[in-house]
Design a protein that fits this description.
The longest helix has 27 residues, at 1137-1163. The protein is α+β, with helices and mostly antiparallel strands and 1427 residues long. 28% of the residues lie in helices and 20% in strands. It contains 36 helices and 63 strands. It starts with a helix and ends with a helix. The strands form 16 sheets. Strands 30-39-35-36-34-37-31-53-54 form a nine-stranded mixed beta sheet. Helix 19 (765-774) packs antiparallel against helix 20 (781-790), helix 20 packs antiparallel against helix 21 (799-819) and helix 32 packs across helix 33 (1224-1230). The model is unreliable at 1-44, 49-54, 369-395, 1235-1274 and 1293-1427 (pLDDT under 50).
């Protein structure tokens, strides 16, 4: 499989240039260059139409001495590419870069060509002209830049300049491992060769801020001469340098020793050398001559599973100490080098190191076969066997899996060094794993302590003498919420593998099913080297080694001793961050559990032939969800039809749920007010469920568009609940609104208002409260901070609240600067749903393209949001609005609509409802959205309503997917994963669109921007279709606006985005001053606390601090305040800011939930009377720790490491203070703030509503409560009972080969359709044609149930298909009030709401008889209600 992958990715090979010739010569070498050719003569060489006003006729005298020089080429033809220019000048000198520009005034292209050094051969220059080779070749004007490019640079501390580079010539380069503070083990040595300077000299690049080391490794084969592997280089960034040492041993060469924090990026020269030009590319640089390198492996060591035990010729990932023996000339420059590096905060220490000969690490032999015992079980026989083994001096150490795993966590992160691990150390770990010590997992906890500290331990045996390590008790695995588990996470980089300490995370369907096998799962993520961030898509073969490494890990798995994890599947959001789940086979229990058996259990996928769809269906089972408690009954699922118009589905992904069930969900989730909608998973169904009053009991109504496959029924699983968040603009939406006619001044005014508001919010509590209520983030943290301020904590300058407020302002200003994230006060960001009543007016295609569309012709929406003027009240939005989704790249992605008030919809809050009718559904026009969980922004600020009201929407119809003849397999899943990594051009396309829209006068309406929008849509669908969006180099922007921070080809933008960027000055987030503020005396003086309660609080706080520190380390978050709020100030290495914020809040919520439970369990309740004293104790012990730390910051003391000095005041050194704020509401009550009063009022109101609704639910489902607990999970579909664990298959959909629905092993025919038609403005005579009747019924009629006229939401009676006159119809469960839309809509009825018996006995008893009338009569009676 791997060779085919290499073929697909493009293995390194010779490439042909534009003329069709294969390049094998070194483009940088001068020795192998062919002689310069004479200028060809004849008419086939055309000249530019006119000369530039200023051009060079002579070569500048300083040209030969310039180390860095450039020329400008004018009059280039439109089709000229960087490849053409490279062919024209490669023979004359070393080309560093080529950049082609399209002139903004429509003049011919021009280009900058940079050489390093200036070419000594200038025969290309002929009186101001030069030849550009192409088809055909032609003459262009040439200009020499008068000022040398290498004028030097600046360092952070000096303005007198510094050289761009300093050569670093060496005699030998040693790769090694620092095994002690003064000892380095040399693992490999390479020597300098004369031809190194042909392709580059090792040097320090101050412009790019890195060391660049060139070397050529060799492999020595038995009985043969060394085999050279070609030239390589290592790029060591300044920011990656841990320490730099200078070695000056008497009588020996001077040397530099570099130790790094993480492995640097390695490259190898292309062999044979190829130029690496992309078709039609306009830019090229010398780095395109290189490909990524990830390892040097011996010929007798084929790749196997990824592990720390792998043997390599040069291990780039673990040999991260570099000893550079300098030549005499470079050694003499060390004082100057040291002075320049000091300006970059890099100090060179003088040190004496002992060089230790290379040897193999003994640890792997000692650990051989160490996975025989389970993580937490006591294996008595193993214990005695090991005791006998020690008596026999056996050198093999048997470690339990969890201890072995934690040991490799320490090894992979460099906390422990494999060469210093001895048999005594391993024996001690085994001893601490045996009874009675193993009851507390002491061996594992010691290693967790080491990993959490994150500092290198030179003497591993010293851990057992460390009192803190021996008493370390994080207890992170105890009292986890039922919806959380501890998950192990592994990060795979090109050169290394990192194992991480398990942390709590929310479960998904698979991990809940196999909860007893939690230790068998790992979450794996593929990244670039840690300082590089995510793996980026690459159209060329430059990064193919990274993709091949990823495929090998997917194919071969990950190994740790006897444990072998294999690829399982990946979630739909995981693949976007290059993540997947792995699993190790288990034979525990009744049968063997394998990756194949788990995938088979997930659902029935045999009918799927599209690999992308198969991956998405598996990913559906891996969505992070929270199941309903088993005490909530779910008895009935009703199938209802989708509403479609041709290829447009108006109900795509949305169904219904009863208000009763929604209230029970709110109570289970501890939500004060029941949400109007939830995003869910259930069997093979997914999407959104909106609460409707006409859905009775505990009923869920599902549409065909929501069922993706058939799968085992395991209850209703909730992804999230609907809630209100403020709408925000960003760079994409501002770009679209600008091109639709919104003036720049509108955005500038919004920016001025917000910057002024944020300045006032730091000192004015009233202003802060107003802003926090207006600018509600997606996680509603702002509302929590608002409650804290109302409780008086801002007035008292409480340190935690003061810091949170400063963080919120700094984070908000940061997003304004980096993303133009303007919060719109008159806006909302909410979940999408559909108007089931059909009252809203739909979209008319006839209005597309018209600028001044009348308001009464616009599509309508319904939106009801919280009313900030009324506590607990809501208000309906009316008037003109814009609605859209993120990201919006096409001018038609943002729609102008009319918001209206429909009384029948007033039960829906914090959900935007779209029309059920029209020529096209509105969500699909908003960046190709649907209703299966998409969020939409709605803005009613009239300043932001564009004059162009109905730009034609884009057609988001995806391309036909790629199908496989034999159907998807696990191998094709692996291949798809890797190809997605390589071909994921989504960020590149979005970036190019933003730059091009800013550069072009037409903005987002520019032809290239429209093409990029279509390409972006294709890239979004890649995960569904398997068809990549192929990047075209011609779409690369000619220039980049300054706000995108591109160093090359940049210009100062004067568009709205450019002006917004210039308006914002970032605010620094400094936590240091907050620690000096006084704690709130209202809480400290409230209770007289006993030592016992303080001791308990200290114990839980120590565990809380460990959990917080661990999550902060894994998420790379600097402060606990960022974790608590989700307002992360650092730029994520992997994933978008939004995704990182979402993940941070998931981890934060899990920690908060876990420790809230621990605290409430400790006191035995959750009321203010029970919790108040304990929360006050939590606050006091935190205050005590801070007081001690502040004292140590002012006075010398003995530190934990034995040294003496003062404690620094910083987030890293000070105690955590967020612990008591697990109960921010209780703290407010203890302090006597407003929370106590408002909470009591709310609880009474909500309790009354809950009690009433619970009583109704009990009456409707009373019989179910008499059953056993397991039957609470039973489900009724059309009268057939489905038990938990059985297959749920509602529709015979396109994803299935079956024509009928299978329920509980029985085949059930598709039920009779039930349609409740409401004529939405059409001719009454046409209504009958819109009703799709079951063909079995010979003469269809409609029946109106007596006394049931007011049941439907819209106040209309329900109409139901019935048998011919004279037959007896029977009514079963509550009838769905479905709707018929205007002509052209196609119904796919599936709901069975009525049981029909013709000439037979009733199937059910106690049913209501109905009057049978002819169809025409029924319609006439129905329409009479509206006359």
């Amino acid at each position: 499989m791997l060779p085919s992958l290499i073929d697909k990715l493009g293995a390194p090979s010779s490439k042909k240039n534009g003329a069709g010739n294969t390049r094998t010569a070194n483009p940088s070498a001068t020795a192998d260059r062919p002689p310069a050719t004479r200028a060809p003569q004849g008419p086939r060489y055309s000249r530019p139409p006119q000369r530039p006003l200023q051009h060079s006729t002579t070569i500048p005298p300083q040209w030969p001495s310039q180390r860095d020089a450039s020329i400008t080429l004018r009059g280039l033809k439109p089709k000229t590419t960087a490849s053409d220019i490279y062919q024209s000048f490669e023979r004359y000198g070393n080309i560093v870069s080529i950049n082609i520009f399209d002139d903004v005034q429509g003049r011919p292209r021009y280009a900058h060509v940079r050489f390093k050094p200036a070419p000594s051969d200038t025969s290309f220059f002929r009186q101001g002209e030069c030849i550009i080779h192409g088809n055909p070749s032609y003459f262009a004007w040439i200009e020499f830049n008068k000022k040398a490019e290498d004028g030097g640079g600046f360092t952070p501390r000096r303005r007198d300049g510094c050289p761009t580079t300093i050569d670093l010539d060496y005699v030998s380069l040693k790769f090694g491992v620092q095994i002690q503070r003064d000892s380095i083990m040399v693992k490999k040595e390479v020597f300098s060769k004369p031809n190194y300077k042909a392709n580059g000299t090792s040097h320090i690049d101050f412009e790019k801020r890195k060391f660049i080391l060139y070397f050529e490794p060799e492999i020595t084969l038995p009985g043969s001469t060394p085999l050279g592997l070609g030239q390589m280089r290592a790029d060591i960034k300044f920011s990656n340098i841990k320490q730099l040492y200078r070695i000056d041993n008497a009588g020996e060469r001077s040397a530099l020793v570099i130790t790094v924090t993480d492995p640097p990026v390695y490259w190898k020269i292309r062999n044979p050398i190829a130029t690496g030009f992309r078709p039609d590319c306009l830019s090229w640089e010398a780095n395109d001559l290189w490909q990524r390198a990830i390892e040097v492996r011996g010929l007798d060591a084929p790749p196997g599973p990824a592990s720390l035990e792998e043997v390599k010729e040069i291990d780039f990932g673990r040999w991260t100490t570099y000893w550079i023996d300098l030549d005499t000339a470079t050694a003499s420059m060390l004082p100057n080098i040291e002075q320049l590096l000091r300006d970059w905060n890099i100090t060179i220490k003088t040190q004496t190191f002992h060089l230790v000969p290379s040897k193999e690490a003994e640890i792997w032999r000692l650990l051989k076969g160490s996975q025989d015992t389970q993580p937490t079980e006591l294996n008595v026989s193993s214990f005695w066997a090991q005791q006998m083994a020690w008596l026999e001096e056996n050198t093999t150490s048997q470690l339990a899996f969890d201890v072995r795993y934690q040991l490799e966590v320490c090894l992979s992160h460099g906390v422990l060094i494999e060469y210093t691990i001895t048999s005594e150390f391993l024996k001690k770990l085994v001893e601490l794993s045996q009874p009675p010590v193993c009851q507390s997992n002491r061996a594992r906890l010691i290693l967790e302590y080491a990993a959490d500290r994150g500092k290198t331990i030179w003497n591993p045996m010293g851990l057992f003498d460390n009192e803190t390590a021996m008493n370390y008790l994080p207890e992170t695995s105890t009292r986890l919420p039922s919806h959380c588990i501890l998950m192990r996470k592994v990060v795979v980089t090109p050169t290394k593998i990192y194992f991480n300490t398990p942390t709590a995370e929310m479960t998904n369907r698979v991990t809940r099913k196999y909860r007893t096998l939690t230790d068998n799962f790992i979450r794996v993520q593929f990244t670039d080297e840690r300082l590089e961030g995510r793996v980026k898509g690459c159209a060329s073969d430059r990064d193919d080694a990274i993709y091949q490494r990823a495929y090998r890990v997917l194919d071969k798995g990950i190994k740790m001793g006897d444990v072998h994890w294999e690829f399982l599947a990946f979630g739909n959001s995981q693949i976007r961050e290059n993540g997947a789940f792995f699993f190790r086979q288990s034979s525990d229990g009744p049968g063997t559990v394998t990756c194949d058996s788990i995938r088979k259990w997930m659902g029935k996928f045999s009918h799927i032939t599209v690999i992308a769809k198969y991956a998405a269906r598996l990913g559906q089972c891996l969505s992070t969800t929270r199941p309903l408690p088993p005490t909530i009954p779910l008895h009935k699922i009703v199938r209802i039809p989708d509403v479609e118009n041709g290829k447009f589905c108006f109900t795509d992904g949305v169904g219904k749920i009863s208000s009763t069930l929604m209230l029970l969900i709110a109570e289970a989730w501890n939500i004060t007010f029941p949400p109007s909608a939830i995003q869910f998973r259930m069997g093979g169904c997914k999407g959104v469920l909106v609460a409707w009053p006409n859905v009775k009991g505990t009923e869920v109504r599902i549409r065909k568009s929501q069922e993706k496959f058939s799968a085992e029924y395991n209850g209703l699983e909730i992804v999230r609940c609907s809630h209100f968040a403020s709408a925000t603009l960003n760079r994409q939406t501002i770009t679209i609104l600008s091109c639709l006619g919104v003036p720049n001044e509108v955005f500038l005014d919004l920016m001025r208002e917000q910057l002024d508001d944020f300045d006032q919010a730091l000192t004015n509590p009233n202003k802060a409260v107003q802003l926090l209520m207006r600018y509600i983030d997606e996680n509603t943290v702002s509302l929590t901070i608002k409650e804290m301020i109302l409780n008086g904590f801002m007035d008292s300058r409480e340190p935690f609240i003061d810091t949170l407020l400063h963080l919120w302002v700094a984070w908000s200003v940061k997003t304004l600067k980096e993303k133009a994230r303007l919060v719109v006060e008159k806006g909302a960001f909410v979940l999408g749903g559909v108007d089931e009543t059909g009252a809203l007016r739909g979209h008319s295609k006839a209005m597309e393209g018209r600028k001044n569309v009348p308001q009464d012709k616009l599509p309508q929406i319904f939106l009801q949001i919280p009313d900030e003027r009324s506590e607990g009240g809501y208000r309906v939005i009316t008037g003109l609005c814009i609605v859209g989704r993120n990201p919006s790249l096409h001018p038609g992605d943002i729609r102008v609509v009319e918001a209206v008030d429909v009384p029948a919809l007033n039960h829906v809050v914090n959900v935007v409802l779209f029309p059920l009718n029209g020529d096209r559904d509105v969500p699909s026009m908003c960046s190709g959205g649907d209703l299966d969980g998409d969020d939409f922004f709605v803005i009613w600020d009239q300043r932001l309503i564009p004059p162009e009201r109905s730009h034609a929407p884009m057609d988001f119809t995806p391309l036909p997917p790629v199908e496989e003849e034999k159907g998807p397999t696990s191998d094709s899943l692996k291949m798809f994963f890797v190809l997605y990594m390589k071909n994921n051009t989504l960020p590149l396309i979005a970036y190019a669109h933003l730059a091009m829209a800013d550069f072009a006068g037409a903005g987002a309406k520019h032809e290239t921007c429209i093409d990029l929008a279509h390409l972006h849509s294709k890239a979004v669908d890649y995960a569904k279709t398997g068809i990549p969006a192929e990047w075209d180099g011609s779409m690369e922007p000619p220039r980049w606006p300054h706000f995108m921070n591109q160093m090359r080809k940049s210009y100062h933008s004067r568009t709205a985005l450019g002006q917004l960027y210039d308006m914002v000055k970032p605010k620094a987030f400094d936590v240091n001053e907050g620690y000096k503020l006084p704690f709130d005396k209202r809480i400290l003086n409230r209770y007289r606390l006993s030592n016992d309660i303080l001791k308990k609080a200290r114990h839980i706080k120590s565990q809380y601090d460990i959990s917080v520190r661990r999550v902060m380390k894994q998420l790379e978050i600097a402060t606990e305040f960022e974790l608590w709020t989700g307002f992360v100030m650092s730029k994520p290495r992997i994933g978008t800011t939004y995704k990182v914020q979402e993940r941070v809040m998931q981890e934060s919520s899990a920690i908060k939930h876990q420790f809230r439970i621990m605290c409430t369990d400790e006191v035995g309740g959750s009321t203010i009377e029970e919790l108040g004293p304990f929360v006050a104790a939590m606050y006091q012990v935190t205050w005590e720790e801070v007081r001690i730390a502040l004292h140590e910051s002012r006075h010398d003391h003995i530190r934990q490491d034995g040294t003496q000095g003062k404690r620094s005041i910083s987030a890293r050194s000070m105690p955590f203070i967020s612990f008591p704020w697990l109960f921010e509401d209780i703290l407010g009550e203890v302090a006597g703030g407003l929370t106590a009063l408002t909470k009591a009022t709310k609880s009474r109101t909500v309790r009354d509503v809950k009690d009433k609704t619970k009583a109704e639910a009990k009456d409707e489902t009373e019989s179910s409560h008499d059953d056993e607990l397991e039957k609470c999970w039973d489900l009724s579909v059309d009268g057939h009972v489905i038990h938990r664990g059985q297959i749920l298959h509602l529709f015979g959909d396109d994803d299935s080969d079956d024509e009928t629905s299978s329920v509980d092993g029985n085949v059930v025919e598709d039920p009779v359709a039930v349609v409740d038609p409401i004529a939405l403005g059409q001719n009454p005579e046409e209504v009958g044609d819109l009703i799709d009747l079951d063909p079995v019924v010979p003469e269809a009629t409609l029946a109106i149930a007596v006394g049931d006229e007011n049941e439907p939401v819209a106040g209309s009676p329900a109409l139901r298909p019935m048998p011919a006159a004279g037959a007896v119809a029977k009514e079963s469960e509550p009838v769905e009030a479905s709707l018929v839309s205007p002509p052209g809509l196609i119904w796919t009825p599936q709901a069975r709401e009525v049981d029909v018996e013709v000439d037979g006995e009733p199937e059910h008893e106690d049913v209501e008889e109905v009057e049978i009338v002819p169809l025409e009569t029924a319609i006439e009676r129905y329409l009479r209600k509206f006359r």
